[in-house]
Structure to design on (211 residues):
């Protein structure tokens, strides 16, 4: 099984990295592909361009301490990045057909607004990571077609009895916004992002101006 984790990575931080490392141990992923978004359907503003965001993901993926792969599929495709279309493209080009989308609880609560969300939840496995300030108990308020696919049981998920797995981790109260603000103000980012990422940010003068 391979994992897919997309995002702006503006910049990538321990709130992304640590839960993914945990999931690799829990599910023995062959790899987890980190996919920077090129253009968000919601017109989200990126503070640095796609090249820098991909480079930062590549730095993390080059470490021998994880099984991450930096994937620029959405950057090469350009245009608006729709998760369902990205997964379909990956399924066509990789030999492994067991593909699992990993996302945060905040994104999952909004999944009904996603392009082709029904095909997404019917054709792919999902792992949902809890996020700070989001109550996982609100899952019970989601539509029945989604709620019936959800499980906290790893074995149910692996046996394909349920296709959406809720993963409770020690959620770190870290956000890219908090990191960018710290850099802009000249504050320390220890414990928020790896030193290699901070070095890249400094070398390239990133996040030093307000957009």
């Amino acid at each position: 099984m391979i994992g897919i984790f997309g995002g702006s990575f503006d910049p990538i931080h321990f709130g992304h990295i640590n839960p993914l490392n945990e999931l690799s141990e829990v599910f023995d992923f062959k790899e987890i592909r980190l996919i920077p978004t090129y253009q968000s359907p919601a017109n989200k503003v990126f503070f640095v361009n796609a090249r820098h965001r991909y480079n930062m993901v590549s730095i993390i993926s080059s470490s021998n301490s994880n099984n991450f792969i930096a994937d620029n599929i959405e950057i090469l495709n350009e245009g608006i990045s729709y998760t369902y279309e990205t997964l379909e493209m990956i399924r066509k080009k990789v030999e492994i057909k067991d593909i699992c989308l990993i996302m945060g609880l905040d994104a999952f609560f909004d999944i009904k607004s996603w392009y082709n969300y029904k095909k997404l939840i019917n054709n792919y496995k999902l792992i949902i990571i809890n996020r700070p300030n989001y109550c996982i108990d609100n899952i019970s308020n989601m539509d029945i077609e989604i709620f019936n696919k959800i499980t906290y049981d790893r074995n149910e998920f692996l046996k394909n009895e349920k296709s959406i797995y809720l993963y409770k981790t020690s959620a770190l109260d870290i956000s890219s916004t908090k990191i960018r603000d710290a850099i802009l103000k000249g504050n320390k980012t220890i414990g928020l992002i790896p030193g290699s990422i901070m070095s890249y940010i400094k070398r390239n003068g990133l996040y030093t101006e307000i957009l």
